[in-house]
Each structure stands twice: as C-alpha cells, then as structure tokens.
Design goal:
Elements lengths: L5 E2 L1 E3 L12 E3 L10 E2 L3 E2 L6 H8 L4 H11 L4 H6 L2 H4 L5 E3 L2 H5 L4 H8 L14 E2 L4 H7 L1 H6 L1 H7 L4 E2 L3 E3 L8 H5 L6 H29 L1 H19 L5 H28 L6 H7 L2 H16 L3 H9 L8 H4 L4 H6 L3 H15 L6 H23 L7 H9 L1 H4 L1 H25 L2 H4 L3 H10 L1 H14 L2 H25 L2 H33 L2 H32 L3 H17 L26 H11 L5 E2 L9
Parallel strand pairs: 1-10
Antiparallel strand pairs: 2-3, 4-5, 6-9, 7-8
C-alpha cells in the first residue's frame, strides 16, 4: 500500500477548539492539501498529539476536577503509614528489669533508687540499659530500707554494673507501643529503626515493581490490585503477634501504597493540560499535608499501638471507590493500540465536561497516527536483531533509561535529586528526638507547614521554572540545616531550642517543596512510554535515601546530636549543584517518544530514519516538528 508523504505544518492564526485563535496544524499532500472542518473550526491536522485530543474533550471541566480530587485524596493515607513510627513506637522512660525485685513488688522508685546507676550525682537521670550486679535474692530478704542503708557496702562487693537482658517501662506515658511490646531499646534499638526502615524498603520495592507494571498493565489495573493488598495488610498489622511479622506486613503495606500513589499520580499528570501541570503537581499532595497533621492528633488520643494502627488503617477503605470510578489513562491506551477504549474514556470526559467531540472515525484516525509514532519509536529502540527475545527485551525496557544516550546523564542526576530529597525530608521530619522537642507538636507543625510549601512551589513553578526552583529549594534547605548544626554545636540546648526548631521547620518547608517538585519535574522529562518507569525508578532512589534516615537519626544521632544535620546539609548542597545540569520543562508538552524530550524535542536523526524505513519497508518520510513550548 502506497503511503503518502505527510507534512505537519505549524500555522499561526488558525481557528482553534472553541473558535478562538490558536496554533493549528494542516494535513495534506502539499499546497493542494484539503482542510477538514471539525468541531467548530478544529481541523483533522490539529489532532496531531494527545494534547490536542485532550483539549477537545476539555481540560478544566467537571470530569477533570472529579478525577483530580478523587485521586489526590488517596495521598491522605500515605503519611498515616510512613510518618507514624515515632507514635506507634513511642519510647517511654525505661530501666533494667530486675526479676527478683519485680516479683517482690518493689515500686518503680525503689528499683531505680537501688538497682539502677545514675549518669550524674547531681541529676536524677538514670541509666537505661545497665544495672548493678547485686545478689538480689539477698537484697529482697534485707528489704528496701536496709538495702539502701547498706548500698555503699553492696557497691564495694559488686562494683561493676552489667548490661541487662530486659527492661521495664513507665506505662503512665503510654499504655503500649511497639517498643514496649517487643522491648526495642538498648541492644535491640536497631530493630526499632528497622520498623521505619522497612517502610522505605516497602516503598522501594513498590516503586521498582509497580513502576514497571504500570507501563505494562496500565494505571487502573495496578491501582486496583495494590489497593486490595494495601487494605488487607493495613488491618493485619494491628494483630501482629511478633515484631518479625509486624515488619513483614509493614513492608507489604507500604509497597502496595506506593503502587497506588504512583499509578494515580501518573494518571493525573497524563490527564491534564500542560498549562495546568504546575498547579496539579503542587496541589496533588495537599491531602498528604492533612494526613500529616492528623497523624499526631490521633496518636495523642490513642495510646495503645494496636488500636492506633487500626484507626490509621481505616482510610485505606477509601480506595474501594476506584473500582467504580477510576478509568484507564487514555494516553497510555493509545500507546498500547487500544484505541476504542481510549475513545470511550475521552467520550465520557467530553460528556461530563459538556463538550462535543468530532465523529468517532476522526478521533480514531487521529489516535492511529499518534500510536504509529510511538510504535515506530519502539521499533527503533528495540532493534530488529532482538525480535523473539522476549526476556531480553523486557530487561532492556527495565534499564532503557540508562541505555538511551541522551537520557543517561539526565537520569543519573534525577536519581541523585530524588535520593537527596527523600533522605533530607524524612530525616528532618522524624528528628524530633535529637532536637529535644515534643514529637506531637513537631510533627503537627511539620504537616501544617507543608501547605504553604506547596503554595510556594506552585508560584515558583509558574514564574521561576522547574530547574532553578528545584536548585534554589535544595540550597535554602542546606543553609537552614547548616545553621541548625552550628547552633547545636555552639549553644546550650535550652538557649538554642527555639531557633533550632524554627530553622529545622524552615528547611523542611524547602525540602518538602523540592520533593514534590521533583515528582512533577521527572514526569515532564520523559516520554509517555517511560514516564511511570522513570518516576518509579527515581522513587527507588528516594527510598534508598529515606531508608538511611532512621539509622542516621537514631544511631548517628546518639553519637552526636548535630551529626545528622551535617549529613543532610551536605546532601542538599550536592543535589542543588547537580540540578542545574537538567533542562527546563516549563510549559513543555508531555512527549510521546524519546526524540521529543525537552532537550531533543523535534529532532530525528538520519540513521534512525534509515532504520525505520528498513524495518517497515516503506518510503515514508516523516517531518515531525513540534514547538518545545506551547503558548498559553
């Protein structure tokens, strides 16, 4: 079949979607090409990209608003699962458990006074992990008063304290926590840090697996599958009989939550016009901030960890709504050749938005042209020598971001940016113990300040751009954290506490905005075929960073309270410098192929055309030219 040469011309002043002026495209075989009137002035040539189809169906109508609100509400669930280990695992005052004294019904005061060493003669601060190695059978026979009178003699006979094997806790502070349930202090403290680290491991595994599956199976199918497992595992955690089971279920829960969140975020970004992406990217996580603020309030009222976790799990039931209301991404459906399903979604969107689409044949023809572009690109990337090697092609797709030359450096920089943002975000958010402040208020204000950080991000994305905004936010965060480090090194704790808390929260505002910005920025840097893969693999790097945060705070922080701030500040500076190497994407159209990424938008190399011609055995010549930026 003879294929005519196609030329897509950009012509200013053609009549647009609503009869207004806009940039249009004319399709024909030269000067004699015809113009088909579609939809009140829209030409067939105008439907050259998915963005054009989206404009026809509507970009700011009721359907778009409903989809955005429905998907973003899920973000409320995530902080209840990832930022609550300080409450589920709250650590009350504790000291060595002396079985003989406990069986003799000695009071807490009596045990601490006699059996527990004090860290200073001038304070009431007692040791948490050591006890005197007395003969406590004799001590019980002596009685408390006599033992206290002879304490000096006992110290001569048993001079060296020993590490105890179990602890007793002050249950007046908390009825039960993960720490008191399984004795996660002293030599078992690393297990406590692991209860938070597993959250990041779960997210890491979730983003690795679902970042791949979202591209293979689609956005909707991943959301539904992950939502079911998320709901079940969330409630099972509250009944965990052992700390090992608790950790395993926690990892499963957060992996599933990561899949739901990632798929919904990609769906929302693919379903909005370029001019709205800054606002959508910033506002998508407002429910996260609300969940962040609610988490400490619930924990303050409920002091039993099983009931607390069950209450935290209740919002996961919201995900049931996706079985009825969430459609598949029409952009993804087109790239998969499922054109009639994409037409159904766009028709539904247009109906809810009160818009009128052209005939089905016209829309399907436009979708076919868009799908052909991605199919040709896929042929170039895979290569004829790999046909039939399914496993090899799957592996190549998984590592494709590192295999495409002009995406390799960009991907490495993006990975470092995600790693830094996540490490610093979770490190600062969960550092209340090292700062010596009230964890309930610290976390509440941390959540409260997320809202202005998102609003600040929106303004910066619109007027400053992605690259400069991200670099500036990293730099501001670094400055604030280095000031925190200096104050903690130079001033007594009581004098510098207010300044430390204020600067820590200021740094968190900056890194919060940076963390959300890099989500939106990454989705703009990659074409549709690799968008969720890029976001998923970048999120893996983020989880590696956040995985280190609890160990930096809990273990390195015990060595020196300012050491975690030093680490977070250095990481932020490195991220700020590397971000400046990325291309700007403000107002850029979301691309469909690697040749249309912002840096290489609209370029087609001669050797790639040769491969295309050889593969398809056609004389087709493609002159595909789109502007990098659309005027709004």
């Amino acid at each position: 079949m003879e294929v005519q040469e196609e030329t897509v011309k950009k012509s200013k002043g053609e009549r647009g979607i609503d009869g207004g002026e806009r940039n249009g495209r004319r399709e024909g075989g030269g000067e004699g090409g015809r113009e088909d009137g579609i939809g009140g002035g829209e030409t067939k040539g105008d439907l050259a990209t998915f963005e054009d189809l989206l404009e026809m169906a509507g970009t700011n109508g009721r359907w778009n608003i409903i989809m955005f609100i429905m998907c973003s509400i899920e973000a409320f669930i995530s902080p209840l699962q990832s930022l609550t280990y300080q409450f589920l695992g709250a650590t009350p005052d504790h000291w060595c458990l002396v079985p003989q004294l406990h069986q003799a019904n000695w009071t807490q005061h009596q045990v601490i006074s006699l059996a527990i060493p004090h860290t200073s003669n001038t304070t009431d601060e007692h040791d948490h992990c050591d006890m005197y190695n007395y003969n406590y059978t004799e001590v019980v026979e002596m009685g408390y008063e006599a033992a206290m009178l002879n304490k000096s003699t006992l110290n001569v006979l048993y001079p060296n304290p020993v590490q105890c094997l179990a602890r007793d806790f002050n249950y007046s502070q908390y009825q039960s926590t993960v720490v008191t349930e399984w004795d996660l202090v002293c030599e078992r403290r690393v297990i406590y840090s692991t209860t938070q680290a597993i959250v990041m491991v779960g997210k890491l595994l979730g983003y690795i697996s679902f970042g791949y599956l979202i591209d293979k199976w689609g956005r909707r199918k991943v959301v539904l599958l992950a939502a079911v497992f998320n709901i079940v595992s969330s409630f099972l955690i509250a009944a965990s009989p052992t700390v090992e089971m608790y950790i395993i279920l926690k990892g499963i829960m957060t992996a599933m939550d990561a899949g739901v969140y990632l798929a919904l975020f990609v769906f929302v970004m693919e379903s909005c016009a370029a001019r709205y992406r800054a606002g959508v990217g910033a506002m998508f996580v407002i429910p996260w901030a609300l969940g962040y603020m609610v988490a400490p309030g619930i924990a303050y009222l409920i002091r039993t960890w099983q009931l607390l976790h069950a209450v935290y799990a209740l919002p996961t039931l919201y995900c049931i709504i996706f079985f009825w209301w969430l459609p598949e991404s029409p952009r993804w459906l087109i790239t998969q050749g499922r054109l009639h399903e994409a037409l159904h979604v766009l028709t539904w969107a247009a109906k809810v938005n009160g818009r009128t689409l052209p005939t089905d044949d016209v829309i399907l023809a436009a979708m076919t042209n868009i799908e052909k572009q991605t199919a040709i690109e896929r042929t170039v990337e895979v290569g004829p020598e790999e046909e039939g090697w399914r496993l090899l092609k799957e592996l190549k797709h998984f590592f494709i971001l590192m295999l495409i030359p002009h995406l390799r450096l960009r991907t490495l920089v993006v990975f470092v940016g995600w790693f830094s943002a996540s490490m610093v975000y979770y490190g600062v958010a969960l550092n209340a113990s090292n700062l010596g402040t009230d964890p309930y208020l610290y976390v509440f204000f941390g959540g409260l300040l997320e809202v202005p950080s998102y609003l600040l991000l929106w303004v910066m994305m619109v007027f400053v751009g992605r690259k400069r905004s991200l670099a500036l936010l990293y730099f501001i965060c670094a400055v604030c954290i280095f000031l925190v480090m200096a104050i903690m090194m130079l001033l007594p704790h009581e004098e510098g506490l207010t300044a430390v808390v204020v600067l820590s929260q200021a740094g968190k505002v900056a890194v919060t905005a940076a963390f959300q910005l890099i989500w939106a920025y990454t989705s703009e840097l990659y074409p549709t075929r690799f968008r969720s893969l890029a976001v998923g693999q970048s999120s893996v790097c983020a989880r590696l960073g956040s995985l280190l945060s609890p160990y930096i705070n809990d273990i390195l922080g015990k060595t020196s309270v300012w050491a975690p701030s030093a680490v977070f500040g250095i990481v932020s500076v490195v991220a700020a410098a590397l971000t400046l190497t990325l291309p700007e994407t403000r107002n850029a159209v979301l691309t469909e192929s690697t040749k249309q990424t912002p840096k290489h938008y609209g370029t087609t190399k001669p050797q790639e055309n040769a491969i295309i011609e050889s593969k398809n055995q056609t004389t087709t010549t493609n002159h595909y030219s789109n502007p990098t930026f659309d005027s709004e």
